[in-house]
Amino acid sequence: MSDITAEQIKAARAALGWTIIDIAEATKIGSATLKRYEATSGVPHSRKGHLTKLRAYFEAAGIEFVGTPNDAPGIRIHAQGGDRDKER
Predict the structure, then answer these.
(1) How many domains does the chain have?
(2) Is 2 exposed, middle or buried (0-12, 13-18, 19+ CB in 10 A)?
(3) How many alpha carbons fall within 13 Å on the CB side of residue 70?
(4) What pLDDT sits at residue 47?
(5) What domain of life is recorded for the organism (predicted)?
(6) For position 40, which CATH number holds?
(7) pLDDT tens digits for 36-75?
(8) Is 69 domain-assigned?
(9) Domain-embedded: residue 14
């Protein structure tokens, strides 16, 4: 499942201490797109597989997405990744 919510994206980014610019550079997803995703509520409208790419990127850093978009969406943190090298 690739659907993650805006709230989960914001929580994952905050838990890792990463900026939107950090994520944009690492994933090649535009910073304006990432800002738009975070400014919405629920699952952001996405094309080009961006949500799948974001999910994989956060999961590689130790974030687990729990729940579903409609039932208690959240995150679990399995590793401290805030200062690790962001695989670019």
Answers:
(1) 1
(2) middle
(3) 0
(4) 82
(5) Bacteria
(6) 1.10.260.40
(7) 999 999 999 988 899 999 999 999 999 999 999 999 999 9
(8) yes
(9) yes
How many residues in the chain? Answer: 88
**Inside any domain, residue 82:** no
Angle between helices 50-60 and 6-16 (to 10 degrees): 30
Instruction: Write out the two tokens for 54.
Output: 């974001």
* Per-residue model confidence as pLDDT tens digits over 1-13: 568 999 999 999 9
Structure-block tokens of residue 29:
């997803």
Does the residue 83 lie in any domain?
A: no
Q: Which are the contacts of 79, defined by CB distance < 8 A and separation ≥ 6?
A: 61, 62
Q: Which residues of 39-59 are buried (b: 16+ CB within 10 A; e: fewer)?
A: eeeebbebeeebbebbbebbe
